Amino acid sequence: MKKIGMLFGKERSFPEAFVARVNSKNVPGIIAEPVSIDKVMQGEPSGYAVIFDRISQDVPFYRAYLKNAALCGTTVINNPFWWSADEKFFNNCLATKIGVPVPKTVLLPSKELPTDTSDASFSNLAYPLDWEGIFKYIGFPAYMKPFAGGGWKSVYQLNSIEEFFEKHAETEQLVMMLQEEIKFEEYYRCYCIGRKHVRIMPYEPRNPHHLRYVADFKPTPEKYKEMEDIVLRICNYLGYDFNTVELAVRNGVPYAIDFCNPAPDAEVTSVGQENFDWVVEALANYAIEKALENDADKDNATWENTLKEVLLKKNCININ
Hints:
By secondary structure, this protein is of the alpha/beta class. The chain has helices at residues 13-24, 60-71, 80-85, 88-97, 131-138, 161-168, 221-238, 268-271, 273-293, 303-313, and strands at 2-7, 30-34, 50-53, 75-77, 105-108, 142-146, 156-158, 176-180, 186-193, 197-202, 242-250, 253-258.
């Protein structure tokens, strides 16, 4: 019997529906259940053919557990090694190399010195930074957000240089990005599953959270295909099997705004029943597909292949 495990936190509607949907298909030799962990021993298998990870970004113990599971043959969705290395600034840099429009973005050092460092630790960092060049490149209004992490934590909308310095002073040891504001006419949030299935959902980020999927944007078939191609390009380069990509359309051009969401919101109260049903069905089918393919004797920790593929395609590295 091959087991598909769901590893999750406080969410309920999506994990429960996923497990129930997999089991309702009655695929011979396949069963789904919430992951159960009573001990983690180095080099010992987890007992699962597939684990669907929804929580390790917040629980380091789970991330370490998943890396061991992958080494011992479990297919982990999403890859815990790449997820550990990934961050939003790199993703934006990657987008510039694969032909995906993104807002102008710069990386900023933390306002406060990291713990156990001193001024001497930053001998290579110019002081002051070229603020004039940075602000001329980005312009205002702008957004400032952490270079890594998810959700809308520590995100600032800024309208002036004075406001930038005021808000940057609040960010303590966070490494931030300053990003051009895209004044959009339409906005979409797109699920991508298995790097092949895409659902493009009209989305209004300016609405209250529970109303953000209540939007009447209607892309033309040509625009839909263009956005679908962008979503697939991003997720194939990043190697994510479950991700969301947010696209803001300005003057007809879809800009990728946020596309590092390996544990995206999928609760029915947030995304609505129709989107919820689609993602549960698509993920159940994909998890079963991966379980049937899974070889328990094979190391599934091949995170380096994803990165190598990306860099080789863009001639960023030489491998002898």
